[in-house]
Amino acid sequence: MDSEARWLEVSMTVDGELAEAVAEVLGRFANNGVVVESAVTYNDAEDEGTPIGPVRIYGYLLADEQLEETRRNLSEALWHLGQIQPLPEPEYRSIVDEDWMASWKKHYHPIPIGERLLILPAWIEEEQPGRAAVRIDPSMAFGTGTHPTTQLCLEIIEAYTQPGETAIDVGCGSGILSIAALKLGARRVLGVDIDRAAVKATRQNAEANELASRIEVGVGSVDEIRKGMFSLRQAPFVLANILAPVIIRLFDAGLAELVERGGILALSGILAEQSPAVEAAALKQGLTFVERRQSGDWVALVFQKHG
Amino acid sequence: MAKKLKAIVKLNINAGKANPAPPIGPALAGHGINIMAFCKEYNARTANRVGEIIPAEITVYTDGSFTFVLKSPPTSELLKKAAGIEKGAGNSSLGKIGKISRSKIREIAEIKMKDLNAVDIEGAMRQIEGTARNMGLQVVD
Fold first, then answer.
1. Assigned CATH topology for domain A7-107
2. CB-CB under 8 Å, B134 with A80
3. SS3 of B10, please?
4. Is the complex ipTM more than 0.85?
5. Domain A116-304 of CATH type 3.40.50.150
6. A179-223, pLDDT tens digit by residue?
7. Which of A41, A87, A194, A269 lies in disulfide reach of A52, CB 3.0 to 4.6 Å?
């Protein structure tokens, strides 16, 4: 074992039914608890993901002078558990101490979008001439800027935001789209989400971008907006980056009513194969198709409401 | 927004004491999860239960954002409480360190049912019994 290593990672892949027992054994020896990780499958278009198959269990042993003894005791305990049900051999890996508080940030880099936007993780100071910075702290709400659906929507915002006008963001997540619209000149934005964590995240990100005074955020959806629970009931620019089946349901709830006459409705979060169903639902509302943009499997659609 | 799951990560950790050291740091850093945001939120939600192990099940989305829910304590913790013992046997061959009735096993299975990968209550009970025996607890009728 190399001298830098401070931890020995022990991991095993087991069936779901064995997970608790193995986690319990590992938990007796591991530092501060264990990790159980599941892979994910998608059952249908609306499924956000369901855990499937074997799980991988991780524990970390401190690499001190007792390590060899701890490791022996752990092997022995696993051997005994193996007498009840067969177990795979544990895998061991030495790891060095890192600044874990910083290392997760390696996943995020500035992302230029279109011609005029730059998505910046909260801790990066960077300026690019001609680009407005949208600062986002990746956290407990969707919309860090790395996903194609978010990027497609940002490109559309760049193309369609009318300076001095208002906008409505249905399903605002981290607030990334609302903030981008404001940075590109929108006067005021209403962002709603049914998830309280998202509403909180949007407020925090709005503050980080010094835009809190121009963004109204609340828990809700199409219904709440139409009932007049917020200061806007309609806007010339409406965004919904959700999922296709949800968008179709929102049309039934009156999504098209939020768009002012002559205004634009931008829809994203749509898989290519779901696009025809969403287009059909929009046309049924009397909206006119304007354009379709695609990135990988994901599609964003733009419609206009005629006056 | 278009949320799609990347992984589900369950942490069996001490209430109110989450910090970036292993296991939390390495488990979450690889997924690009904001470790400070998680630790703060977990500690706030579990502050009044210090001393217990309260698992957090973290849903990681494809863009690195996440949500999490708190789960019922691990089976071994519930078994220790039910059997009135401090600690499981190092291994099950060292003899029995206590007893637990099948009705208690069923109670624990009912508490844990929603968090176990079990099809029915019998399957859940088999898992709980397996854990009990491995801890050196004798299951009695």
1. Alpha-Beta Plaits (3.30.70)
2. yes
3. strand
4. no
5. yes
6. 999 999 999 999 999 999 999 999 999 999 999 999 999 999 999
7. A41
